[in-house]
Write a structure and sequence with these properties.
The complex is a heterodimer of chains A (about 260) and B (about 260). Helix content of chain A is about 30%, strand content about 25%. Chain A has helices at about 45-50, 75, 95-105, 110-120, 135-150, 165-185, 195-200, 215-220, 225-230; strands at about 5-15, 20-30, 35, 60-65, 65, 80, 155-160, 185-190, 205, 210-215, 240, 250. In chain A, the strands form three sheets. A six-stranded mixed β-sheet of chain A has the order 6-7-8-3-9-10, sandwiched between helices. Chain A has a four-stranded antiparallel β-sheet with strand order 2-1-4-5, covered by helices on one side. In chain A, a hairpin with a 2-residue loop joins strand 1 (about 5-15) and strand 2. Chain B has about 260 residues and is mostly helical. Chain B has ten helices and no strands. Chain B has helices at about 5-30, 30-50, 55-75, 80-105, 110-115, 125-155, 155-160, 165-205, 210-235, 240-255. Chain B starts with a helix and ends in a 6-residue tail after the last helix. The chains are: A alpha/beta (about 260), B mainly alpha (about 260). At the A-B interface, helix 2, strand 6 and helix 3 of A face helix 6, helix 7 and helix 9 of B.
Amino acid sequence: MGKTILEVKNLTVSFNGFKPLHDISFEVQEGQFAVVLGPNGAGKTTLLKAILGLLPYEGSVKIFGKDTELLTKDERLRISYVPQRFEGVKNLPLTVYEFFEISSEDKGNLKDRINEFASVGDVERLLSKKISELSGGELQRVLIVRALLSKPKLMLFDEPFSGVDKIGERAFYEFLNYLKEIYNVTIVLVSHDVYNITKIADVAICINRKLICFGPPESVFLEENFELVFGKDVSTYKHKICKEGGPCEFYKEDEPDNH
Amino acid sequence: MSPIIIRSLVAGILTSFLCALVGVFVVIRKMSFFAHAVSHASLAGVAIAYLTNTNPFLGAIGMGLLTGLAVSYFVERSRLFEDTIIGILLPLTMSVGLILISFIKGYKPDLMSYLFGDILSTSRFDIYLIIGISIPVLLLMFLLLKRFILIAVDRDFAKTRGYNVSLLDYIFMAILSLVVLISTKIVGIILVSALVVIPPATALNLSRNMRETFIYSIAFGIIGSIVGIFASYAFNLPTGPAIVFVISVMFLLSLPFKKS
């Protein structure tokens, strides 16, 4: 097991007596792909914002083994965040290139870094376009490239696929896996997509204002946990995979005889 | 060229440059009402200065700066929106100023010159003061420009980068307050927000990127100032309103060319 990159202990967030998050604890190891799963209003965005220090909280959050208040500036640059939607000012003549410039420190050759990661994120043709002219999917790619510019070790994504179609979503998951493999980035991602989480995630963190389950998806994605996360009306169906020219079968791990 | 015109041009160009530079953020962050508050508060500072036998320009700057920082403080601490806080402080400080002026015995300051500016009466001391304030302001803007843009565009991201966004906000408010206050000498309390808002607004109509926005804004501000000063001299017009008229015409002319 690698070293612990992110450690959350007894995290509680309160607003005027209301607790959107209560007593959350989990760890994410270096190089893992962790997914935060929960219904609307479960506190997923609140969790990411608390980890980033954008919201006050009780409890402890340690990144790279340090309390977040004690992180140096360089260590902070190794943490990146891709929000669910861009909440900044869009109606400006700010080009994508300028957006990357203002978002980056000047250390190293900034122009080369922008070109390198623009190529990785396939946004080279967008560099001279204005932020206000980008489609939803293009803007998401730009936000991801922006997050990569500081060469992060930890990336937090908040539902990066809202506004992206299913084909785009599949490409994004492959792209995130590529990042994980090539750049050894630890990823924490908020998603509703149980199917892809099962295929890709190393660890699932299920929350509904409190921690419901934490561990490898194949261990924690049980019907009783889904009921606690999503409510009693949830039903789970196992997928059959149809191979070309062959029979449609469950995954071997999901043989019905095993239950 | 007479020394009066030269001093007017120096003051006009410097203040227009600063207003246009800082004004880009005022427009992006929708802070034009803030500029009004600071300039109107300066009237109380002028009155206090006359009552205490100090330089009225310094009094204006002190009171305006205090008001600007007070707005930032209350926005951060209270649940009220910025325009509400300004809507309270602006009439409060202006009424305090007018009440204090009524207490001044003997020579009363020429209200019209404070309300609408009196660039042609710019003294050497005023020029030194404007230059003295411009240098640190320009230095701070040069050092912090990227951070100010990032905060204006994506505040949360700036926080995740470890920037002390609150402190940077206070610094920007102080810079804006100082720039507005030194510009009241040129166009007066009533019209100073025009110097801060109209050149950047014109620039935003025409620019293709942020660099062009800053360059065009500064260019329009300086050209408007120079043309306005010469027009007021040539046709015996009040200078402040002449400058504002010129930059307003530039804005109207830019509308057909507005980039979508």
